Amino acid sequence: PGVTSTLVCSTTDCPPISIMFNQPDTTICFGNNLPVIDIDATIIGGLQSANQVITWAGPGVNPTTGVFDPNVAGVGTHAIEFSLVDGNCTKDTSMVITIIAQPISTFTGDANVCISDDYIVTYTGTPNLPLTWQLPNGVTSTPAGPPNQYIISFTTDGQFTLGLLAGTASCVSELSTLDVLVDPELDTVTITCQQT
Fold this sequence. Notes:
Strand content: over 45%
Shape: rod-shaped
Order of helices and strands: EEEEEEHEEEEEEEEEEE
Distance between the termini: 153 Å
Structural class: mainly beta
């Protein structure tokens, strides 16, 4: 007679697993030498075995440690993916880190102006952002007629440095500056003619 073998298979139910990140979805203003972000994940439930394998994936993220380097990722919307394998149980989830470009606040104007003339500067930086002027005492700015142009008013003559920031508190530009020499009005010259 033939030999009969019996193989008994069983499956292990995977307990429910939830993943909690210590870093919520966030937005970063891009700049020079940004600090890395150590993204950590708390695993709740599952088998909690000693052999679980965790991997990370996404732009600028270390696949083993989950450390995110925004300098490597660069500007953009980045999905950071987390994967857990624990025996026959798996869990995948992700979070999003958005890096926006730092605004530019450049503006142009003449190097000198007479105090009695309108001094007009033109904003050439990132459009459609709130602007914050940093002006010396007694110097004011008002929007001019054309878009992106501003009238700078002086009450005294001398050398002045005008400063401008663009953006909001969450992502603001570097300070742009412009030096301008304000000349005093010329003295009135009276010419007297004598008949000879």
